[in-house]
Automatic annotation (TrEMBL):
The chain crosses the membrane at residues 233-255, 282-306, 339-359. Residues 55-87 are annotated as: Disordered. Residues 55-76 have a biased composition (Basic and acidic residues). This is Pentapeptide repeat-containing protein. Keywords: Membrane, Transmembrane, Transmembrane helix. It comes from the Bacteria.
Length: 377
């Protein structure tokens, strides 16, 4: 059976459609008129789509212009106190100011309760909240706090939800108590200069200015834990343990060399070793340094792997720590996030290495004393 011609099939279906529509067999003129009508319909639909897209673009452009004008107005008024200056005390007043373009909110006091915290999901970009108080407040995922000034403000039991934007905001000299910046909260470029962090805070810094900030409890953010492990007292402790361990290895190497040289000198003078070779066994420098037992070899390999991994992380984390000291800015989270898993592995290896190191020292301590001839005085 020959395959059907697609064009003929289309024409056949079209004639059957027109036959049902016209009630008679369609002529070529009927087909032409139908195709012209379909083409006109498609053209009209295309024009409507283009008009709709153009209107949508115009609306977006209008919104962007209005948004830009509103932000410019906020930047202009953020440091200008209105004639009837009265600090904001509730969410309704804050929403009204957000729509009006007035951005001066110095001394604002928003307080909820432990049972019913106040949820803020408002666009507050470029607002001035200096010397304000926020207590039992939750800034929701839709809140925009970018480039907001919180200088000297106090935060008690405040939550910044995942998705809330605080990019470029200024928290200089602010006080934080039980404040939680949840994971996903965008903090890029925010300044915490001379801020005071009391107990119960959680924050993951991401390229933030923290020069002069004081922490009344141990920081728990990932960057602090990572940098603390490769600087300060922890670095000195590791250097001390490493020095002792590798010092013992170096001492063993020199001792082995001394014994080897002494033995070669003796062999040149006497034939005792050759005549009694069946009473001696050869030992390599590797066995002398690390021992012939499997446990000794395992201890050496684990400690060496730990030191190699730690050295690699120190070389990677060290420049970030130094840059933070010089500029006051914490590094971008993306610059150290890839090392967190390796750091966890290094910590586990470190615990094992310390335990094995103690075992190695105990093994050396429990060795039999060396018998030497008494010196006749």
């Amino acid at each position: 059976m020959l395959p059907k011609d697609p064009e003929m099939e289309v024409e056949r279906h079209l004639r059957q459609y027109l036959l049902r529509k016209l009630g008679r067999w369609p002529t070529d003129e009927d087909i032409k008129n139908h195709l012209d009508e379909e083409s006109a319909i498609f053209e009209k639909a295309r024009v409507l789509r283009e008009l709709e897209a153009a209107n949508k673009n115009n609306e977006e452009r209008t919104k962007q212009i209005e948004r830009r004008n509103a932000l410019e107005e906020r930047q202009r008024t953020r440091n200008i106190a209105p004639s009837a200056d009265s600090p904001v005390r509730n969410l309704e007043e804050l929403e009204t100011l957000s729509k009006s373009g007035q951005a001066y909110c110095v001394g604002t006091k928003i307080e909820g309760s432990k049972e019913e915290p106040i949820i803020v999901d408002i666009d507050l970009e470029f607002f001035n909240f200096n010397l304000s108080m926020f207590r039992y407040v939750t800034f929701g995922t839709e809140s925009n706090l970018s480039n907001v000034s919180f200088i000297g403000s106090k935060f008690e039991s405040v939550i910044f939800e995942n998705g809330s934007s605080i990019e470029g905001s200024d928290f200089s000299e602010a006080e934080f108590g039980s404040t939680h910046f949840k994971e996903g909260c965008r903090l890029d470029g925010a300044s915490f200069r001379f801020a005071k962090f009391k107990r119960g805070n959680t924050v993951e810094f991401d390229r933030n200015y923290i020069s002069g900030a004081s922490f009344l409890s141990i920081r728990t953010d990932e960057w602090s834990q990572l940098s603390r492990s490769y600087s300060g007292i922890f670095q000195y402790i590791n250097i001390a343990f490493s020095g002792i361990y590798f010092g013992i290895i170096l001492l063993k190497l020199y001792l082995f060399k001394s014994i080897s040289v002494t033995q070669s000198l003796i062999e040149n003078q006497i034939r005792f070793l050759e005549e009694n070779s069946n009473q001696f066994s050869a030992i390599s420098v590797f066995e002398f340094v690390f021992g012939s037992r499997f446990t000794s070899l395992a201890i050496a390999m684990i400690i060496l792997c730990y030191q190699a991994a730690r050295l690699y992380l120190t070389m990677r984390i060290g420049p970030l720590i130094e840059a933070e000291r010089q500029t006051g800015y914490t590094p971008r989270r993306s610059s150290f996030e890839g090392y967190l898993l390796l750091h966890l592995i290094v910590r586990v290896l470190g615990v094992i290495a310390v335990l094995l190191f103690i075992y190695e020292l105990w093994d050396l301590w429990s060795q039999r004393p060396i018998v030497i001839p008494k010196l006749v005085g």
